[in-house]
Amino acid sequence: MKKSRGFGKSATSSKAVASIGLVALTLLLIPYMFEYENVTKLMSDTKKIERESPADENLVAHLELQWDERRRERQAAMSTSDRESFDIYEPEATCFDEERFGSEIRYHAYGDGPKFICGVNFIAKKAATAGGYHHGRDKNCLVYSVGSNNQVDFEKAAHKFLNGCEIHTFDPTLSKPFIGGEYATFHPWGLGEDGITSSFKNKTWVAKSFQTVMRELGHTNRTIDIIKIDCEGCEYQVMPPLFELISAGKAKVDQILIELHLRGKKGELLKEFFSGADKAKMRIFHKERNGWGCSGTKCAEYALASETFLRKANSFAIHPSGS
Questions:
Q1: Deepest of 54, 131, 179, 280, by most Cβ within 10 A of its Cβ?
Q2: Cα separation of 299 and 293, whole Å?
Q3: Which domain holds residue 216?
Q4: pTM > 0.85: yes or no
């Protein structure tokens, strides 16, 4: 009978294969080992969310962790870059129910003028609950439209689809009577720094700050649901003080829909604007280059929402019947 010659050799080969497999597995795991601390923190944060939040809010709360990370990366880029562009400032949050808004037919908001809004249905329900502005009961929805040029499509849409919100339009440059009186209250006021004289073409006015406007209109203790701003450069004078008011708890604003322009110091003005927005806990949820003007590169439309509003609007989008 012949003796088997392969057994011992096969055992040795199996050990070698096993060793090689272990080395290969270790090499595959090395990149993840370096990320262990971050992964552990994310898991810990997620478990904390699950313990503290109702089940239907877990998704929203989990996404906020990612949004915070995006904001931190953008802030790091802001501190090291002097690029005079909008490239650094990208959306860092998601609104589950956003739409381009500003037309008589819903979802038909095309061309220059409309803005992206978060939670139209959520705002409309809130307004309807209070009876709406024109029902004469509690005013539970408030919109400011800064810069008009007598184009009132946005005001019409806000009145129609937001259940009769109280709307105020501001523009000191009109050469003809305001045509949106059926939908909004018009004020020939220019927003800016209090007491500073400004002019445009043949119009001259003394500017008012948001704080002054809110005080004079009796809105100091009310939430402004939407501020729409398209004032061809005044945003860098009017917005930093408003962000300070919001940060200090002296003003409540849910959304800001704004066209930003690259003018003057450019990069520095953008840094100041978004630094103020961060302190006010306003998140960028949409960005759109203006292809109809500004040479396609010199201005961009931004939509920002407060962290509190985003949380409520997104929860409503998930469970509209339970909100």
A1: 280
A2: 8
A3: 87-322
A4: no
